[in-house]
TrEMBL record:
Residues 15-247 form the ABC transporter domain. This is ABC transporter ATP-binding protein. Belongs to the ABC transporter superfamily. The keyword Nucleotide-binding applies. InterPro entries: AAA+_ATPase, ABC_transporter-like_ATP-bd, ABC_transporter-like_CS, ABC_transporter_ATP-bind, P-loop_NTPase.
Length: 273
């Protein structure tokens, strides 16, 4: 009997959030940060959580990171429940002071690899590779305080990608940068993604940034965050920013986020763009 060759096609998302409700203890009872949020992130996605301040974006990211547990619902990575932090999920924050100031660029990128028991020679080779990928080979022995904000952002990204996580969690990573540097970081992130195709969960409250960075966007309602809509945005990028279709979609997203109506009664809907 002939056995046909076959290819395994992944039919499950890398990250699955199902009915995630998260609460914080507060002086008078609890603060509900998110309510019944569900979404799937597939390998290679640039998945954006978009919503106004306080809608629970960072909270969701922290829960995916394993730093807080949902009150209800579940979070799974590759079919396994997320029960705590792990090296398969690395967070890049907007505070680039997350780099150790007493370590050079090279040492900062090597540090988590060595902490994970990688042999020094391999850790160094890996660090040099990723520092090169973010264009900082000339700054291997520079200390963070001598770098610009954009350069520190690149080191943080290199350090995260060097760990080869299953998913990169980015919490408004460019929010503290000036507009020109932010734009350059968007370009560089896009170029890096084209080359490496890593999976990314990206938090922002900027509609334009969401359209430029993401291929899929989950819109969250104001506090507590509920899913308002999900849309495909792969057709947008820096090239289309400012164009008519881009502006029209940004306007529709704005209306969905801030247009009023009782979100609780409104089923999540897909936005056609
Ligand atoms: N540690 C905490 N203890 C109590 N409440 C918290 C805590 N962290 C966040 N919250 C509350 O949970 C809600 C969601 O906060 P979160 O930071 O996740 O929102 P966000 O969408 O990321 O906002 P922003 O864009 O301003 O960062 C807010 O009402 C916030 O006040």
């Amino acid at each position: 009997m002939n056995v046909l060759p076959f290819q395994v096609v992944p039919n499950a998302p890398l990250l699955r959030a199902q009915g995630v409700t998260i609460e914080y203890p507060a002086a008078q009872g609890v603060v509900q940060a998110t309510h019944d949020v569900s979404f799937d992130v597939w390998r290679g996605d640039r998945f954006v959580l978009l919503g106004p301040s306080g809608c629970g974006k960072s909270t969701l990211l922290k829960a995916v990171g394993g730093f807080i547990a949902p009150r209800a619902g579940s979070l799974q990575l590759d079919g396994r429940d997320i029960t705590g932090p792990g090296r398969d999920r690395i967070v890049v924050f907007q505070e680039f002071d997350q780099l150790a100031p007493w370590k050079t660029v090279r040492q900062n990128v090597m540090f988590p690899l060595l902490a994970g028991k990688m042999p020094k020679r391999e850790a160094e080779a890996r660090a040099l590779y990723w520092i090169g990928k973010v264009g900082l080979s000339r700054f291997l022995d520079a200390y963070p305080h001598t770098l610009s904000g954009g350069m520190k952002a690149r080191v943080a990204i290199a350090r995260a990608l060097a760990m080869q996580p299953e998913i990169l969690l980015m919490d408004e990573p460019f929010a503290a940068l000036d507009a020109l540097t932010r734009r350059r970081m968007h370009e560089e992130l896009q170029a890096l993604w084209e080359e490496v195709r890593f999976t990314m969960l990206f938090v922002t409250h900027s509609i334009e940034e969401a359209l430029v960075v993401g291929n899929r966007i989950l819109l969250l309602s104001p506090h507590p965050g509920r899913v308002r809509a999900e849309l495909n945005s792969h057709q947008f990028g820096l090239h289309s920013a400012g164009g008519a279709e881009f502006q029209a979609t940004a306007g529709r997203i704005h209306d969905l986020l801030f247009g009023g109506g009782d979100v609780a009664d409104e089923p999540a809907r897909a936005v056609q763009s």
